[in-house]
Amino acid sequence: MEETILLLLLLPPLLALIIVVGIIIKAAAAAAARTHRQNLPPGPYSWPIIGNVPHMLKGPHIYLTQLARSYGPLCSVKLGTHLFVVGSSPMAATEIMRAHDRLPTYRWVPKAGQDGLQQYSLIWATECTHHWKLLRSLCRTELFSAKGLESQSCLREKNVDSMVGFLKRKQGSLVNVREMVFAVTVNILGNICFSKDFIELESGEKETSRGLRGALYRLMKLGTTPNIADFYPKFEGLDPQGLKKKTSEAMDEAFDVWADIIKERRNIREAQKGIDSAGGDQQDFLDTMIGCGFSDLQINQLTVELFSGGTHSTASTIEWALAELLKNKDAMFAIREELVKELGSTTCIKESQTSKSVY
Ligand code: HEM
Fold first, then answer.
1. Separation of 75 CA from ligand 1 center, angstroms?
2. What is the CATH number of the domain that holds 262?
3. pLDDT per residue over 153-209, tens digit each?
4. Distance from residue 309's CA to the centre of ligand 1 (Å)
5. Cα 149 to averaged position of ligand 1 atoms, centre (Å)
6. Domain of life here (predicted)?
7. Ligand 1, atom 37: nearest CA belongs to which residue?
8. Does residue 136's CB lie within 6 angstroms of at least one atom of ligand 1?
9. Do residue 171 and residue 56 come from a single domain?
10. Which of these, 59, 89, 173, 336, has the minimum number of CB atoms within 10 Å of its CB?
11. How far is the CA of 73 from the centre of ligand 1 (A)?
């Protein structure tokens, strides 16, 4: 009886204490959030749980342009459970990539690309493994170093020559610049990796076609489609939009394109084992990868990443540069002058000539 009275007496102060402690914790959390927010660039109001996802779904490029107009070149935006800092000017990009390089080197990898092959991935690697370091150093030495680039110059010149021939044949008719540059870039990479052209320049625009062109288009579209699983990682296993499945199918389609080439090359190398070629054979990147002991899966993953990283990026940059030149007559005039000065009347363009063009 006495215990019950004591409990009844203590209950109101206990409840008051719990409420006061609750208020203090909440106020401290709000203050911490404010301090945290103070260190962030400005950004739009974000709704609980969904953040700014609905705006993003209308088109990330449109929404991010609107944000840059409203909040300047550096802003923060919440997408689902993730907070993003967006840089949208050359200066902001330079600052992020150069001054704070260590933070973005932890690359954010879209869930659609995480299909179990990341252990062999260069661009979509989620961890800096031993294999990832090997891939980086292999690409740097063989493909992107001055020596590597120099050794591929004749392959690029050959493909640019085909493009100039194609443009001559098309004189007076419409040309889809993006499609043409895309095809030329696929062929340049095709020659570097497999000593093979994969796309006929004359084959025209076939975004939905099967084969390498179609697979690379699909990969680009799937990789840039906003994915709910990226905003709410808990949904990753469900793959709600089927993006992971479709990405995996598109990658398999690309792998099929060169499967026979890899098989044949392995057979040739096996047959030639022990025969001294006296270093006379021209090696392509496939030879280098096989020479490094890569499995077919490792070759497939690296190659598809090089093709998907190098083709649309180049095609859209050139299309954009040409569109800007059309808008800016002075720049177009200066470029024409310089080309006439460096190249004269020849249409057979050498890289050594273009590198002299300062404009
Ligand atoms: C105008 C054309 C291009 C643009 C705008 C572009 C843009 C980029 C960007 C922004 C990155 C990320 C850099 C980073 O996270 O530090 C990157 C990485 C990469 N790009 Fe490109 N790229 C272009 C052409 C190419 C080409 C032609 C290739 C292949 C032949 C290529 C292959 C790669 C690879 C392999 C990586 C990952 C590098 C690494 O992790 O070491 N890119 N690119």
1. 24
2. 1.10.630.10
3. 999 999 999 999 999 999 999 999 999 999 999 999 999 999 999 998 887 655 556
4. 6
5. 15
6. Eukaryota
7. 123
8. yes
9. no
10. 173
11. 22
The reply to whether 209 and 96 lie within a common domain is no
User: Ligand 1 within 6 A of 109 CB?
Assistant: no
Would you say the CB of residue 309 lies under 6 angstroms from ligand 1?
A: yes
* pLDDT tens by residue, 134-147: 999 999 999 999 99
Please check whether residues 90 and 122 belong to one and the same domain.
Answer: no
Predicted confidence band of residue 318 (pLDDT cuts 50, 70, 90): very high
Looking at the domain assignment, is residue 222 inside a domain?
Answer: yes
pLDDT at 276 over 80: no
Across the chain, the runs of DSSP E, i.e. the strands, are 74-79, 82-87
Pair (77, 148) in one structural domain: no
Same domain? For 248 and 287 the reply is: yes
Q: Which of 98, 106, 123 gets mutated to test ligand 1 (max ligand atoms within 8 A of its CB)?
A: 123
95 and 230 together in one domain: no
Nearest to 314 by CA among 326, 322, 324: 322
Dihedral of the alpha carbons of 118, 123, 127, 129, in degrees to the nearest 10? 90
Enter the tokens of residue 193: 């990796």
Q: Is 188 in the pocket of ligand 1 (CB under 6 A)?
A: no
Contacts of 288 (CB under 8 A, 6+ apart): 138, 142
CB within 8 Å of 123: residues ≥ 6 apart = 107, 305, 309
> What total number of domains does the chain contain?
2
Q: Which long-range contacts (CB under 8 A, 24 or more apart) does 307-310 make?
A: 307/186, 307/189, 307/193, 307/212, 307/216, 307/254, 308/216, 308/219, 308/220, 308/223, 309/123, 310/185, 310/189
Whether residues 126 and 81 share a domain: the answer is no
Within-domain flag for 175:
yes
Please work out whether the CB of residue 221 comes within 6 Å of at least one atom of ligand 1.
Answer: no
Q: Is pLDDT above 60 for 278? A: no
Number of the ligand 1 atom closest to the C-alpha atom of 305:
35
Q: CA torsion 85→90→95→100, rounded to 10°?
A: 60
Based on the domain organization, do 169 and 137 belong to the same domain? Answer: yes
Whether residue 189 lies inside any domain: the answer is yes
